[in-house]
Amino acid sequence: MVPTDFDARMAAAKAGDEGAFVELFRSIQPALLRYLNTLGGGLAEDAASETWVNVVRSLHKFSGDERGFRSWVFTIAHSRLRDAQRSAVRMPVPVDTDDYLRSRPSAVDVLGEVEEMFSTESALALIGTLPPEQAEIVLLRHVAGLEVSHVAQIVGKKPGAVRVSAHRGLKRLADLLAGREAHSTPQGCNGIDARIGN
């Protein structure tokens, strides 16, 4: 097998090359943060930090290709987010009503609403309205770009169940978009994919 650029970066990172590790980090971090922010909100930054601490500690044990590495990192992130969510349940969460009200869209700003729908943040927020399991599967498939088999391993389900859940999630998103954009050209799920990236 011919070594790839990824293989060279991974070998260098395992040997302690900080630059090589930074390249690996940059290849995953944007999608990782989108995943964690959508599912974990304020817990995302801590969960991401814990994920990378775990990656650094266990990097020497990793073997596989680039897709395998991406799946491995998201598996760790899934576990760290669940840990953070369990811890957060035990702690009271202060509510800042001023921030909440400022973040609410104005009922009269129709143009602003339409423009917001085309932003990445809005697409991720829309995904966040799905049932948690569907949201996670849609994020792992269409934001993180993981294969069905890898998503199935992360969420502990069979590949067929992952496909069904992803399909239902995308259909529900299409229905939500159709409802919000009733007076404009329908975007469908491809519009969501274009905004959130792969």
Supply database-style keywords.
198 residues; mainly alpha; 11 helices; 74% helix; 0% strand
Radius of gyration: 19 Å
Structural class: mainly alpha
Helix proportion range: over 70%
**Global morphology:** globular
Descriptive account of the structure:
It is a single chain. Helix content is 74%, strand content 0%. It is mainly α and 198 residues long. The relative contact order is 0.11. The mean pLDDT is 80.
Quick gist of this model?
This protein has 198 residues and is mainly α.
Fold blueprint:
Elements: H1 5-14, H2 18-40, H3 44-58, H4 66-89, H5 97-103, H6 110-117, H7 120-127, H8 132-143, H9 148-155, H10 159-180, H11 188-196
